[in-house]
Amino acid sequence: MKTLTTTRRVYGNESPDDTAGTMWRPTDFDDFHDGGAYPEVFAVQFPSEIGWQKKEINSEINDTISCPPSLPVDMETLMKDSTETMLRVKGNRNRTDAHESYKAFVRAFERDAEAKEIETFGSLCEAKSIEIIDNDTVDAKMFENEFVTCENGVGKPCVVRNIFKDRFHGVDLLDLFPEEMLTVNDKAPARRTDKGAMRQNTLLVTSKRYKEYMDDYEKCNEDDDDAKPAPFYNNGWRIFSTHPEKVNPYFANMHPAFTRAADETETILRETFKFVVKSSSAPHMQSHVDAMTANVSRSLNKAFIGPAGCITRLHYDAQNAHGFLAQTKGRKLFVLFHPAADVGATNCCSSADEQTEMNQSLIDPLRHIPEKARKHLYACVVEENEAIFIPHKWWHYAVSLDSSHTVMRNFFHSKTNVEGLVTMVMRSVANNQTN
Ligand SMILES: O=C(O)CCC(=O)C(=O)O
Fold it and tell me: According to the UniProt record, where is the region Disordered (predicted)?
């Protein structure tokens, strides 16, 4: 495990003045080589190469994508002709996955003149709708009571209209950072169960190339819909951590005023760090509390960008976080299950000696919904300038219906899911102390 301070690289903020958070933070595969334990990285941190493609790619694309992130030039070659790349990748990819369900679903929807609403169509025909509220009229206390703490803390999802004001219009994160290297995946989120032919393919490309790929992929949809492979997805882009100074002016208000009563993340973090510093006889760390708080908080904001057909499979958020996901471009279909649904019975578990992925489900909502789960099923299409609030432990699945840009924040609240955040920080500190 990494330690808080190493001689090679410094983790977090070295100087008290470094409130901008410019110090090294883990971002690449190699940084997680030993399993990680970074409190500000809001992801399941399992040992390297589980669930990710790096060296052992056994497909035709092996030669071109098996280089580590330090050799992006090969990735550039790979993406030189992105249409050709897609065709090459096509023959090697498993075609019976969630993407096939999505294609069948959308094709059937297009054929069925009676089907008016995609969210109540096909396997979703018994889905309940999700309440819609308006950013202009909702108040912070009301949001906290009616959606976050209601039902004894189980919460209730909602869709919020008019989420962005003037600030976001025209902002394309890919255009803002054309040379930024992105890790894009054809299966999301990464799962240990994705092995052999099912495993996730990962590419490293610049934003600029990825944008071209998105355009080509959409064109390819029109020409050759049947044969098209699952698209690569820029899922969980940590641009809010890596370039806060450039992104925040646009998205400072990405979770609007009404969530502020419910989003107590920074208060919880600050108090936890203060406690840790006090009890670890490391008083010099006191001056780092604000910067650590800001860094971790920022890391809970991410972007998800990709062409139509990009899927995030059914899961609930790690550390029981609440999620707030806003569409800055395009539409996304969300399918949710109340935590009472027996979705967990289908957890991903690769083998008896490996840990079950408790927050991942094998259910593919566009293919089949088990009878018992149907009464807990919700669905909606979130459009541009709208957001969805997904309470902690609510299972969710998402698929882009158009070329789509989503900005997301995970957050914590003292009366519902504080434990998840405190446990994450404390566990990370304990790991660092014992290593
Ligand atoms: O926008 C998406 O693809 C869904 C992301 C998601 O489910 C999550 O961040 O928990």
Answer: 1-23
Q: From 314, 243, 271, select the one nearest 412 (Cα to Cα).
A: 271
Residue 1 in contact with residue 39, Cβ under 8 Å? no
Which of 171, 307, 295, 168 has its CA nearest to residue 235?
307
Residue 8 has pLDDT above 60, yes or no: no
Task: Specify burial of residue 146 (Cβ count, 10 A radius: 0-12, 13-18, 19+).
Answer: middle
CB hemisphere CA count around 172 (13 angstroms): 12
pLDDT band at 222, cuts 50/70/90?
A: low
* Per-residue burial over 213-238, b = 16 or more CB atoms within 10 Å of its CB, e = otherwise: bbebbeebbeeeeeebbbbbbbbbbb
Ligand 1, atom 10, lies closest to the CA of: 317
Mutation test residue for ligand 1: of 396, 400, 402, the one with most atoms within 8 Å of CB: 396
Q: Any idea which architecture 100-174+222-434 has in CATH?
A: Sandwich (2.60)
Using CA atoms, how far apart are residues 15 and 6, in angstroms rounded to an integer?
14
| Residues whose CB falls within 8 Å of the CB of residue 423, separated by 6 or more in sequence, listed in order | 319
Residue 323 in contact with ligand 1 by CB distance below 6 A: yes
Pairing of strands 181-185, 202-206: antiparallel
DSSP one-letter string for 264-311:
-HHHHHHHHHHHHHHHTT-GGGGGGHHHHHHHHHHHTEEEEEE-TT-E
Contact 200, 187 (CB under 8 A): yes
Quickly tell me which residue has 């992130």 as its tokens. 69
* Interatomic CA distance for residues 169 and 156, integer angstroms: 29
Ligand 1 pocket, residue 400 CB under 6 Å: no
CA of 70 to the centre of ligand 1 (A): 27
> What was the pLDDT predicted at 190?
84
Given a cut of 50, whether residue 48 has pLDDT beyond it is no
Atom 3 (ligand 1): residue with closest C-alpha? 312
Cα of 317 from ligand 1 centre, angstroms: 9
Q: What is the DSSP letter of 251?
A: H
- The CA distance from 136 to 409, in Å, is 20
